[in-house]
Design a protein that fits this description.
Layout: H1 2-10, E1 15-16, E2 27-29, H2 42-47, E3 52-55, E4 66-68, H3 72-87, E5 91-95, H4 100-111, E6 117-119, H5 129-135, E7 143-147, H6 155-163, E8 167-170, H7 178-181, H8 184-191, H9 193-201, E9 204-207, H10 212-217, E10 222-225, E11 231-234, E12 240-243, E13 246-249, H11 255-270, H12 275-284, E14 293-297, E15 300-305, H13 311-322, E16 328-334, H14 343-356, E17 361-365, H15 367-370, H16 379-385, E18 394-399, H17 408-413
Parallel strand pairs: 1-2, 2-3, 3-4, 5-7, 5-8, 6-7, 8-9, 9-10, 15-18, 16-17, 16-18
Antiparallel strand pairs: 11-12, 12-13, 14-15
Amino acid sequence: MIQELYQRFLDSKGAHTDTRSLEKGHFFIALKGERFDANEYVQQALDLGAHHVVTSDSQWQDQDKVTVVPNTLESLQQLATHHRNALGIPVVALTGSNGKTTTKELICAVLATEFNVTGTRGNLNNHIGVPLTLLSMNKSTQIGIVEMGANHQGEIAALAEIAQPDFGLITNYGKAHLEGFGGVDGIKKGKSELYEYLKESDGTAIVGRWDPEQIVRSAGIKQIFTPQSAQLHTEIDPILFTIDGLLIRTQLTGTYNYHNAVFAYTVGKTLGVSSENLKKGIASYQPSNNRSQIIEIGKTKIILDAYNANPSSMKVALENLSRQSTKHRVAILGDMFELGIYAKEEHQEIAAYANKLGIDEIHLVGENFMEIGGKFKTHKDLSQSWSLNPTKEQVILIKGSRGMTLEQLLKEWT
């Protein structure tokens, strides 16, 4: 069945799971979830000119352009693995609590200087996004980069089986998705499922030399360590570092992004990228999509890091803010989600940490922060009480979980 589906896929213009993006010649897989059932759109997909449709709805059993399978998600994943093996290219997988997408983009930027690279689009890094990433690769792809996300144990193991990476790295172990993983130990175990796959498959781990936990948990696997020569010179405005005798200028801010850049350098060096292009690739990457974006408005510098947040990423972002040379520093912090029973404790700790660092102004936004003394439930409440003064020399950090949509503050201020 998979071989037959695979030939249909090869004859198409690519796999899609959403009719809103479907075009003539596409291969459509109708997924079913708790809140949606794409099997209801089989006819629409055919009307739009789909080359072939995969569904679990038996009423389409005898249609030439339709294949009926017991489980469309499983078929998508099996098809992706089959395609990955048929291509036979090196695949680099990465996971971690923080910095996955930025590290992935940096790796792609470095490798793209010499190779045709296909990487995860945005943060499509789950049980659907990983297969779609693999299926987006084609005969011209020389290296695949696959980002893997998870919020409970067992997910990374499953994604690794689908992607079957040759190389893998873990950006860090942090306090993300505490509720699903059941605590910090659960996070470390869950993320390290990537290491377990590499060990069983004779793969190679790219290991951050600065992280003792990574060194221990990757023991017994082929290891490539980040260069010992790496040295950070400036961590703000922007990062400047040397590595293997190269001076590398970036468009990044914060120590945490320094580690992401060093990972990208190490992956590129491992796969044969020249020194000149290693430097060029890292220097070319500019943060976007609310991830560590630097925005200048008048005399005010805004660090927009509102794509997501957890206790670990909040702390390093606040530390970076505290090191800014500007006299007036403002932290606008939104609720952190998926913390479960740890929510109140972690929000209290972040508020206390911001005070300890001596941040000049702290504005807490969200229901969790309101429980510990915050004054604003939403970003709209904040914008009605506090407005941006672009004539003031200041640095403003905006950080919160995705659902807080704190980036909307920029629109409300202007």
